[in-house]
Amino acid sequence: MADKQISLPAKLINGGIAGLIGVTCVFPIDLAKTRLQNQQNGSRLYTSMSDCLIKTIKSEGYFGMYRGRTKLCVFVFACVHACVCVHTGLSMFFVYDSVSLYFFDH
């Protein structure tokens, strides 16, 4: 199994899916952080991050926490593709071990 090479399209798809899962997990927290930061001093609507998330779910529904996520997902998918391509290209010049890079050890 260790000798089997994974194709570049498979790496791109897997990396993209991992990026989308990461965005899905982090987006509600980032939304609450942004809403807390954008509050005006005189009119504080939220008192904490959990308060922000609860009020968002009550007023906009569960999927209200993911409003605007589509553009970010496209961006993350593209960034992961670029990172995987660079990593794959550079890995042709270096030989990886399970622990370290042979290029720097020898």
TrEMBL record:
InterPro entries, alphabetized: MCP_dom_sf, MCP_transmembrane, Mito_Solute_Carrier
Predominant subcellular localization, coarse grouping: mitochondrion
UniProt-recorded Gene Ontology molecular function terms: L-aspartate transmembrane transporter activity; L-glutamate transmembrane transporter activity
Protein localization: Mitochondrion inner membrane
Recorded superkingdom: Eukaryota
Transmembrane segments: 12-32, 72-96
Record protein name field: Solute carrier family 25 member 22b
Gene Ontology, cellular component aspect: mitochondrial inner membrane
Membrane topology category: Multi-pass membrane protein
Family matches, as PANTHER family: MITOCHONDRIAL 2-OXODICARBOXYLATE CARRIER 1-RELATED (PTHR45678), MITOCHONDRIAL GLUTAMATE CARRIER 1 (PTHR45678:SF3)
Protein's UniProt keywords contain Transport: yes
The Solcar repeat ranges on this chain: 6-102
Family: Belongs to the mitochondrial carrier (TC 2.A.29) family.
One BP annotation, GO: malate-aspartate shuttle
Protein's UniProt keywords contain Transmembrane: yes
Keyword terms of this UniProt record: Membrane, Mitochondrion, Mitochondrion inner membrane, Transmembrane, Transmembrane helix, Transport
Gene designation: LOC115167105
Gene3D superfamilies for the chain: Mitochondrial carrier domain
